[in-house]
Amino acid sequence: MSQGRLHPLTITIREMVSIFGRMGFSVAHGPELETEWYNFDALAIPADHPARDMWDTFWVKTKEGEERNVLRTHTSPVQIRWLEKYGAPTCIIVPGKVFRNEATDATHEAQFYQLEGLAVGPDVTLAHLKGTLELFCKAYFGPDAKIRLRPSFFPFTEPSVEVDVWFPARQTWLEVMGAGMVHPQVLRNAKVDPNAHQGFAFGLGVERFAMIKYAIPDIRLFHSGDVRFNYAFDEKRV
Amino acid sequence: MKISRNWLQKFFTEPLPSTEAIAEAFTFHAFEIEEVDGDLLDVKVLPNRAADCFSHRGLAKEISAILDIPLKNDPLRSAVKSMDIVSPYLKVEIEDPKKCLRYMGALVRGVKIGPSPAWLRDALEAVGQRSINNIVDATNYVMLNIGQPLHAFDAKKLAQKNGACAIGIRNAKEGEKITALSGEEYVLPTSILLITDAHADVPIGVAGIRGGKAAEITNDTTDIVVESANFDGTTIRRGAQALKLMTEASLRFQNRPSPELCAYGIRDVLALIQEIAGGEIASVVDAYPIHAKKNREVSVSLAKINGVLGSNFSKKEVSNVFERLGFKTKIDNDTFTIAPPFERTDLVISEDLVEEVGRIIGYDRIPASDIGCPTSKIGHPMSNIPDQARYRGIEKVKDFLIEHGFTEISTQSFAEKGDVMLANPLDKTKPALRTNLHGNMKEAMERARYYAPLVLSPSEKPKLFEVGTIFPKEGERLAVETSEPVPNLPLIADDAGYEPKRYELGVFKPFSAYPFITRDIAFWAGDARQDEVHIEKIIRDCAGGFLMHLDQFDRFEKRGKVSLAYRLVFQSMERTLTDAEVNDRMQNISAALRAAGCEVR
Question: Which of A25, B31, B219, B552 is the most exposed place for a label (fewest CB within 10 A)?
Answer without folding.
Answer: B219
